[in-house]
Design goal:
Blueprint lengths: L1 H30 L5 H7 L5 E4 L7 H10 L2 E4 L5 H4 L10
Parallel strand pairs: 1-2
Length: 94
């Protein structure tokens, strides 16, 4: 009987220790995460992008957020079919 109580106590201590170590690792990882979306993605070797309307690039707040948070951008509507090929076979990239 005494042997089982000692074994149960040892298992309880081991499980508690494992849970504490796991929580410490989880909290440490969250605390060291990047401060921007861009930095968080870069930590994992990824890009974080946005579709950008060229008309909004002249707005300083919009451009500031894009530069701070994203490391990849694509054209929002400027490169869709109706803009690049207004008539079939006639392309326009202006």
């Amino acid at each position: 009987m005494k042997h089982r109580r000692v074994l149960r106590a040892a298992v309880t201590v081991a499980v508690t220790g494992a849970l504490a170590a796991g929580m410490t690792m989880a909290l440490t990882t969250s605390a060291s995460a990047g401060t921007t979306l861009r930095a968080s993605a870069a930590e994992k070797g990824r890009y974080f992008g946005a579709a950008v309307a060229t008309g909004k690039l002249s707005t300083s707040v919009y451009a500031t957020i894009l530069n701070r948070e994203f490391n990849s951008v694509v054209a929002e509507n400027e490169m869709k079919w109706d803009a690049t090929e207004p008539q079939q076979g006639q392309f326009r990239y202006t």
